[in-house]
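Hey, weird one. I pasted the Sodium/proline symporter sequence into the form twice and got a warning about non-standard characters only the second time. First submission, copied straight from the form history:
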Amino acid sequence: MQIGVWISLAAYFALMLATGFYAWRKSTSSSEDYVLGGRNLPPAVAALSAGASDMSGWLLLGLPGALYATGLVEAWIGIGLFLGALANWIIVAPRLREQTERYDNSLTIPSFLANRFPTQAAALRMISAVVIVVFFAVYTASGLVGGGKLVQSAFDGNYQIGVWLTLGVVLTYTVIGGFLAVSLTDFVQGCIMMLALVIMPIIVLYAGAGGGFSQASETLAAVDPNYLSLFDGLTLIGWLSAITWGLGYFGQPHIIVRFMAVRSVKSVAAARNIGMTWMGISLLGALGVGILGRAYVERNGLELADSETIFILLAGLLFHPLVTGFLYAALLAAIMSTVSSQLLVSSSSLSEDFYRLVLDREPSETEVVNVGRLAVVAVGVVAGIIALDPDSQVLGLVANAWAGFGAAFGPLILLALTWSRMTGAGAVAGIVSGAVTVIVWILLGWNGSFLGGPGVYEIIPGFIVALAAIIGVSLATESADEFRAIEN
């Protein structure tokens, strides 16, 4: 059995490395090529790259695991994300694509903010780079946790080896090929992920759970009569904590950077339609894996110690080894697509926004690209160390990092693109207050329990505080230089 699995996985790894080599030959001659692929991504590549780098192992591990353990009520997270992603494509994507090119061809989110608010350029570059590296170290760790769980659950291997093996493959093609390699591999990985999420629920429903929806529903009703209810036990705070995951989209650097790289503003609409179709199908598939996976486990008297490994369990039990290997590759695709995107954004912030800033000279393009490659490795190693705890939960790590970015950058990006009265001082106040609020909220444990009741997801207070800080400080300050920049 293992031979067929390894054949499929070997083919997947070879495809990823070949793509990285192709991208190295095609587009790494300048920092714009390495960081943004020359701003020439076709709509389909941009769309699936944004989707694949967004969903990560959360789509095949975290969300199905939450649905498996709790029931359909957890689907509100997916609903919130879908609505948030749609708003992100409509509000942010076209404006960011146009304005990042207009403001001195900004290659990163921090450089765009610095060019948009020149009076606070240095502070915004430095603070943004720090926030990006800190939260991405945690976010990247969540992906590596997924790789460790795959090796541990599917192959009865060592969890830590799985973490470093996953990191090693991602580092190889990311360091070699840069943004184009990451985007092209994301496109392939996105196709693999969606296909897997279409195949598995169908097979589980008819070959695994047996009898179709009716018998699966009966099995789940025996577990919990309200298992398939969207509202059972749902409080207002619980609903808000789930639906407001969608707010995080406006501030995710590894996602919105794809908007900066799409071929043209006119291509954004086509990319949006492709991306949202992909996301809708993939979320429905993840829902099916978690819910129908629970029916399969119950009907067959199986035990599952970690609900986040339901996809791995079903892949190993129900399919031919070659298909099992393909499904494992889909899981790795979900993990690697996000990890590579996060590592590249972190490295671009360090090389473009930190390294250039601290030098007293203008570095060559080759030097900046090489510094970016070293930064990819450095951030990856830190994330690997964070991920070494085998008790880590994918969904928990993703939730923390997602909230951090959503609060620190979400209100900032939205207002920077749409409100001409915003000032640099307001931008600094927003990013600092949003990030600090999220960190303090987590440290105080208020995301688990707040005022004796259920916890409040940290993105809610973080987003509100940052939004208020930006508006309040901007109205209290003025900058003629920044207003003239908007007019020009």
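That's the output from the first submission. The warning seems to come from a hidden character in my clipboard, not from the data itself. The CA atoms of residues 344 and 376 lie 6 Å apart.
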